[in-house]
RNA sequence: GCUCGGGUGGCGGAAUGGUAGACGCGCUGGCUUCAGAAGCCAGUGUUCGCAAGAAUAUGGGAGUUCGACUCUCCCCCCGAGCACCA
């Protein structure tokens, strides 16, 4: 080439376009005027000062590509970014580096935003938000106040998860395998009074809503299991009179309203006749009133162990007889009441009816302590036998003695008077109806989901906007009748500012550092005016991130939580992309908060915040998750400096399917950098005018282009970026071959190539697009030192290329010939002829004569245009 | 223990009933160069063979089918989530 070569210089190009896009507000849609709003959102990042690593970049780039594709399809795409920098994650980082969280937040913010800019994502930089900004957390606090006003926020003394290292309580969702979600310390149980959000009131809606949303099945299943609905019945057992314990009424608990009965929850009311004993959890209220020394020793030993120890001690069940008896309400048998660890206070009523014949745990317990086992369900194949025994009593001991497991499968009820012959599980419902009619029990569902423990004994978070007045408490007055002494902070007093204090580190005494600051917590009661105290705990980080996408649409308006008109236009979020690790944390909380907003009338046209969610895979390094402690965190900066963000974006997306993640090894980046340079060279050197082309038959090229458009479009729509890039590469290879052969190339092929590549490599495609617009044909070195603002419309607003089916058909078809399913040859044939089977068969037959010769052709299978198989 | 993903060349992966290994990395040989880089050309699952060619091959085993990486059943291995939930 004689032309002056135009060198590819990614650093220069990328910095230039990033500046231009931000200055021109290229990716800041007019939220009011937009005609085709498309809210493209990536999961909220929390910034640490190590900053953004390639794992984050992997996720964000994948989300950005989708947004850019939607923009080129004519949508007004809104792609905001912000920082979830309030809360325990950020505070723990500040602790580690020994800097005040506020100071650290400033450093992290600057660094994180710088890195995010360098990745070239199409963020709307005019609408960033940070959760630690008082203009933001004012509304987080406002949400808390609304929760309190609607009775969804309440205080309760309960056994809660306590992380001894983070020195705070945690929600159930934040305990992973008995360990702290943040620091992996073993979580302890503590009896503390805390604030909760009543997410369980939404359990059924959270469950039902899953059927209506387009989320990965995996995530939906995880949420279903977490919500964990089990349907059954609550059944009351009366304690047999004659038990001489003095039963003092203990602290009122919903599960033990009366001390002379024991209520149980069971999913198998059909086995009630088989209940031969009962088991109470060691924490069950009446247990403490049993004076027996053996009982109290057992209970004390059990309580001393952590939950984790109890589980780790394995399947070996231990227990002690309480001395009490209860009456089985259906057959009036007197059955013993035991106390055992394997029954958990936290689930159901903390007491169970034990049916050893049909529950493996009860079975093991019964075997160990020699308790009776009564079979009340038989396998379906015995159904006929039961009909011949009107009493429904057959082989009571069959399958029990000498067998070492309970029968938990489906079957038919026996030994249960009028229930005999009912099929289970199909007819359990009839049993429950019967129990309801006779007043023995009532239909009930229980959930694994617990209320969301929202308070944290930490500094770096939004102070919970509540005030406690002991005077009012004494008088039994409060904002609600049932919350004496407690008042929410009035709206005009929000935000309750987090004060700058020196002793911000967690103390571990069950209170927040703010408890040491009277200047913060001393206040006046909003009702009676006497001395009162502010709540000093802060709220959970997950509350900050549970509503951020509402705020993005109105960051310019400080007078309301969001502009309702914009909400109607922009919400719900069209596409949400993030990690699967939040399936039962963030993604559940967000759905709950959104449903609450709907009930409060803040929104009306939706209650699922994310109708479409895509879970990307995890980018790992050397087969392990990137983490500071492993020392395998890869930062994108040096790669961007060396190869440019465009090459790195392409490399990351080419690694494998976006929902699978991948292992980051930098060997492949070189190859991708070469690819980017090849494209650059092709477009800068290879263009000629149309007239020169008239003599060359470029039908094949036309087909390749249309095919590329079709494949790339479909792949991006399904977020299959790796194959999209592969198809772009095939297209590039075809263009280079053509150019090598004829030395010319029609500009339109280069243009379509740039358009297809634009979402992946936004900077270099913009640069080439703009140069093409200026020069029309041949790109030469322009005066780079005096760059002007773009003269043409940004490539990122150009319409996405369309393909035409008619160019996709090949003139010649290759038909593979098989004999008995084995490939034996192939023929090429005019596409028009491929429809005529006899013709194809004849030609194919000749081709594979040596394999068919002298044999009977029993069958010929022909798939037009693809394959022909002779069966001999 | 239960639930959900996976298992394909030296590597990442493609192909969801019709030519297994697209696309890329790596590697081998060649061209170009003073040299390097970059670039270009050819090759690259395994076994036998100088070659033509043949056999064989998608964790293992069985099955359905004219035809199976793809569907069904059993087993092995890896990863993720939940876990004494009554």
Characteristic key phrases:
RNA-binding, alpha+beta, 7-stranded mixed beta sheet, 872 residues
Strand content: 15-25%
Number of H/I helices = 28
**Overall mean pLDDT score?**
86
Report low-confidence residues grouped into runs of 5 or more. 243-257, 396-401, 781-786
Based on CA atoms alone, the radius of gyration comes out at: 35 Å
The total count of strands amounts to 35
Helix fraction by DSSP (H/I, runs of at least 4): 25-40%
Please give the structural blueprint.
Blueprint: H1 10-23, E1 37-42, H2 54-72, E2 76-78, E3 82-83, H3 88-97, H4 101-118, E4 129-130, H5 134-149, E5 153-163, E6 168-170, E7 175-176, E8 179-180, E9 188-197, H6 203-209, H7 217-227, E10 230-239, E11 261-266, E12 277-280, H8 293-304, H9 307-312, E13 319-327, E14 334-340, E15 351-354, H10 360-369, E16 377-378, H11 383-388, E17 411-413, E18 423-424, H12 428-438, E19 441-446, E20 452-453, E21 455-456, E22 466-468, H13 470-474, E23 486-488, H14 518-521, E24 522-524, E25 531-534, E26 538-539, H15 541-544, H16 548-551, H17 564-570, E27 575-579, H18 586-599, E28 613-616, E29 619-621, E30 624-625, H19 637-643, H20 645-654, E31 662-663, H21 667-685, H22 690-693, H23 699-717, H24 721-742, H25 747-757, H26 762-775, E32 812-819, E33 822-830, H27 837-847, H28 849-852, E34 859-863, E35 867-871
Parallel strand pairs: 1-2, 1-27, 3-4, 12-14, 27-28, 29-31, 32-35
Antiparallel strand pairs: 5-6, 5-9, 7-8, 9-20, 10-11, 10-13, 10-19, 12-15, 13-14, 16-17, 17-18, 21-26, 22-23, 22-25, 24-25, 29-30, 32-33, 34-35
Helix pairs in contact: 1-26, 19-20, 20-21, 21-24, 23-24, 23-25, 24-25, 25-26
The chain binds one RNA strand of 86 nucleotides through helix 7, strand 11, strand 15, helix 10 and strand 31.
């Amino acid at each position: 080439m004689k032309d002056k070569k135009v060198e590819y210089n990614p650093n220069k190009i990328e910095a230039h376009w990033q500046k231009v896009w931000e200055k021109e507000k290229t990716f800041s849609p007019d939220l009011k005027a937009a005609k085709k709003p498309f809210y493209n959102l990536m999961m909220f990042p929390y910034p640490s000062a190590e900053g953004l690593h390639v794992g984050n970049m992997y996720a964000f780039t994948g989300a950005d590509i989708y947004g850019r594709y939607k923009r080129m399809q004519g949508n007004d795409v809104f792609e905001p970014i912000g920082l979830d920098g309030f809360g325990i994650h950020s505070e723990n980082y500040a602790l580690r580096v020994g800097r005040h969280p506020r100071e650290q937040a400033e450093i992290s913010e600057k660094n994180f935003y710088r890195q995010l800019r360098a990745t070239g994502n199409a963020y709307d930089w005019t609408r960033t938000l940070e959760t630690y900004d008082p203009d933001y957390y004012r509304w987080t606090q406002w949400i808390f106040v609304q929760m309190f006003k609607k009775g969804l926020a309440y205080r309760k003394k309960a056994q809660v998860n306590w992380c001894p290292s983070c020195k705070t309580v945690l929600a159930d969702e934040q305990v992973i395998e008995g360990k702290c979600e943040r620091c992996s310390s073993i979580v302890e149980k503590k009896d503390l009074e805390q604030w909760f959000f009543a997410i369980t009131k939404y359990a059924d809606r959270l469950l039902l809503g899953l059927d209506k949303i387009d989320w990965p099945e995996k995530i939906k299943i995880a949420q279903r299991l977490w919500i964990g609905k089990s349907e059954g019945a609550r059944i009351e057992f009366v304690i047999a009179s004659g038990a001489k314990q003095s039963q003092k009424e203990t602290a009122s608990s919903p599960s033990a309203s009366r001390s002379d009965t024991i209520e149980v929850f069971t999913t198998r009311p059909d086995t009630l006749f088989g209940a031969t004993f009962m088991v109470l959890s060691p924490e069950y209220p009446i247990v403490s009133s049993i004076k027996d020394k053996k009982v109290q020793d057992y209970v004390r030993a059990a309580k001393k162990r952590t939950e984790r120890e109890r589980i780790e001690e394995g399947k070996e069940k231990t227990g002690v007889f309480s001395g009490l008896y209860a009456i089985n309400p259906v057959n009036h048998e007197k059955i013993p009441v035991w106390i055992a660890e394997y029954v958990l206070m936290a689930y159901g009523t903390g007491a169970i009816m034990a049916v050893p014949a049909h529950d493996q745990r009860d079975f093991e317990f019964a075997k160990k302590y020699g308790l009776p086992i009564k079979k009340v369900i038989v396998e379906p194949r015995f159904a006929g036998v039961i009909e011949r025994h009107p009493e429904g009593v057959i082989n009571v001991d069959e399958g029990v003695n000498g067998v070492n497991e309970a029968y938990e499968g489906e079957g038919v009820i026996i030994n249960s008077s009028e229930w005999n012959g009912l099929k289970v599980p199909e007819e359990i419902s009839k049993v429950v109806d019967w129990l309801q009619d006779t007043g023995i029990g009532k239909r009930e569902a229980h959930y694994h989901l617990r209320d969301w423990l929202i308070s944290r004994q930490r500094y770096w978070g939004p102070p919970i906007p509540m005030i406690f007045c002991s005077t009012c408490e004494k008088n039994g007055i409060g904002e609600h009748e049932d919350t004496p002494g407690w008042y929410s902070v009035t709206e005009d007093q929000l935000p309750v500012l987090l004060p700058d204090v020196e002793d911000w580190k967690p103390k571990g005494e069950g209170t927040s550092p703010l408890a040491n600051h009277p200047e913060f917590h001393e206040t006046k009661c909003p009702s009676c005016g006497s001395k009162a105290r502010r709540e000093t705990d802060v709220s959970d980080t997950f509350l900050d991130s549970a509503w951020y996408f509402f705020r993005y649409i109105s960051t310019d308006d400080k007078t309301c939580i969001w502009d309702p008109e914009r909400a109607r236009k922009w919400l719900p979020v069209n596409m949400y992309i993030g990690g699967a690790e939040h399936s039962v944390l963030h993604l559940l909380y967000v759905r709950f908060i959104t449903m609450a907003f709907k009930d409060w009338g803040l929104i009306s046209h939706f209650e699922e915040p994310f109708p479409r969610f895509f879970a990307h895979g995890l980018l790992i390094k050397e087969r392990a998750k990137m983490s500071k402690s492993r020392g395998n965190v890869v930062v994108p900066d040096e790669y961007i400096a060396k190869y440019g963000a465009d090459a790195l974006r392409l490399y990351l997306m080419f690694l494998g399917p976006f929902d699978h993640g991948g292992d980051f090894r930098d060997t492949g980046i070189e190859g991708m950098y070469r690819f980017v340079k090849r494209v650059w060279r092709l477009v800068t050197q290879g263009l000629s005018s149309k007239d020169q082309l008239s003599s060359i038959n470029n039908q094949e090229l036309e087909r390749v282009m249309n095919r590329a458009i079709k494949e790339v479009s479909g792949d991006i729509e399904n977020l299959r970026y790796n194959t999209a890039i592969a198809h772009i590469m095939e297209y590039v290879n075809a263009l280079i071959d053509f150019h090598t052969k004829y030395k010319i190339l029609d500009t339109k092929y280069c243009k379509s190539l740039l358009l297809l590549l634009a979402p992946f490599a936004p900077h270099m495609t913009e640069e080439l697009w703009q140069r093409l617009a200026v020069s029309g044909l041949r790109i030469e070195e322009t005066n780079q030192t005096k760059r002007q603002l773009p003269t043409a419309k940004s490539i990122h607003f150009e319409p996405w290329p369309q393909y035409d089916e008619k160019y996709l058909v090949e003139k010649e078809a290759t038909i593979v010939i098989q004999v008995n399913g084995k490939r034996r040859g192939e023929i090429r044939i005019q596409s028009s002829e491929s429809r005529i089977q006899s013709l194809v068969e004849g030609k194919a037959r000749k081709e594979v004569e040596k394999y068919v010769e002298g044999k009977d052709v029993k069958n010929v299978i022909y798939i037009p245009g693809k394959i022909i198989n002779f069966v001999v």
